[in-house]
Design brief:
The chain is built from 2 helices and 6 strands. The chain has 136 residues and is of the alpha+beta class. A 6-stranded mixed β-sheet has the order 5-1-2-3-4-6. The longest helix has 28 residues, at 94-121. It starts with 18 loop residues before the first strand and ends in a 15-residue tail after the last helix.
């Protein structure tokens, strides 16, 4: 290994002051400028927005300075400014995207109830989806 190559979370030092997208364990998507990182991959993001996607629409909620505990990061990547400008999505207001998100969640819950009922009628039980729950 070359001595100039960084290992572990030290790779994140190359990303300082770059615009990053961070996917959190709870499903939220944050976009901001990486200002600091430590040995546990805890992040400090500056000028952060929370981006919510519903279908072909998205909305950005300003969050400011955001501290992310490293264990909550699922995915992290640099934002390509050229590709971001060409998003095939429509930006809508915060109120519109939050309303669309609420409707989508209600629809998913209703669908889940129907599936659960149909399985129960057949003597089967559906295990709840724990992928977005904080299990610790």
């Amino acid at each position: 290994m070359n001595k100039t190559e960084l290992e572990g979370t030290a790779h994140l030092l190359d990303e300082l002051d770059k615009k990053l997208m961070v996917l959190l364990r709870d499903g939220r998507t944050l976009i901001g400028y990486l200002r600091s990182v430590d040995q546990f991959a805890n992040l400090v993001l500056h000028r952060t927005i929370e981006r919510i996607h519903v279908g072909k629409e998205y909305g950005d909620i300003p969050r400011g300075v955001f501290i992310v505990r490293g264990e909550n990061v699922v995915l992290l990547g640099e934002i390509d400014a050229e590709k971001e400008a060409e998003l095939p999505l429509t930006e809508v207001s915060v109120d519109e995207i939050l309303d669309a998100q609420r409707q989508e969640q209600e629809s998913k819950q209703e669908q889940q109830k129907l599936v659960s009922k149909a399985l129960k009628e057949r003597g089967l039980h559906l295990m709840p989806d724990l992928t977005h729950d904080d299990m610790f």
